Amino acid sequence: MSDMKTAILDAAEKRIQAGGFGGFSFREIAEDVGIKSSSVHYHFPTKEDLAAEVVRRWADRTSGNIDREFAKDPNAKRVWAKALRGTAFSKAHMCPCTILGASSQDLPKAVAAEVKRFFKMCQDKMVAQGMSADDASEFLSTIIGALVVANALRDSAEYDRATATFRVEEKTAA
Amino acid sequence: MSDMKTAILDAAEKRIQAGGFGGFSFREIAEDVGIKSSSVHYHFPTKEDLAAEVVRRWADRTSGNIDREFAKDPNAKRVWAKALRGTAFSKAHMCPCTILGASSQDLPKAVAAEVKRFFKMCQDKMVAQGMSADDASEFLSTIIGALVVANALRDSAEYDRATATFRVEEKTAA
DNA sequence: ACCTGAACACCGTTCAAGT
DNA sequence: ACCTGAACACCGTTCAAGT
To answer: Which residues of B touch A118 (CB under 8 A)?
Structure first.
């Protein structure tokens, strides 16, 4: 991966976190990284390719983070709730997969497919960590919804209220 | 409210449910209702005005629906979970406030403010119905997240898996 | 009161052209 | 291998003009 490709992905990720697929333009990305918009197309032929790659990278990083933390703490729900808490309190406040997942109906095919893969990865990993399928579905919905509601209320503390149950410090059942 | 105003709101609502704020254009709305895009501006001066009004109308309808159902069933969580289930299984699949709330960072002020009002209304009503503030936060996150995840996975049944706990048929505690 | 066409600066994408 | 400028049909918005 060239430095320029990485810089473009970083800029696109930041803007997708704020405004989703319709919330960024090649001309803005181009200014962010210091080239012309037509040059962005050299690295990523279409907006679809760029957004799909942003989602893929985010999914890979999330998967790695969760695996690392789960090795240190056997309480899966606490691990997930803490990981997404990092996103809720970050400068961007949102997970790109969540904002894109909410508008999945209107997304180019490759982007919608990568977003779907992200949420499937979350559920599969939760089940592998010991949750039942139904429990994983409900829990994933809670932490994703907490991100959305906290963002809408413009109050990161709302994420903590919604997920307090799962971030308790006694190391008990997952 | 003129018929044309209502027709424009209906068309905008449908398109916002699919693609959020960036996912609809005045030219598309104009075609939907059979006038020119410059005429849409006569009814709603800006995209901001139009989207804010869509959110306000959705919030009012939701509030009314919940009140009506809660009068018939004292189990507040079941009432809410069933109401949003209607959205998950509708043709549009999504709640406009949820898709806009996810991209709140990038929204015009009036739209962001209306979206915030919607989520505050949900929490306040839940507390008035007997939930604790923390319980309302967690529960609201779960049903909103279930909408997002089901949409991303393109599988409405996912909403049922995530909310099964709350839609049980014995009329017990709220 | 309601609608329109033309104009403005914007958008994604293509492509021939440069180094 | 990487970048550019010009062009295309699109976008929100404005406004003078029509009925």
So the answer is: 152
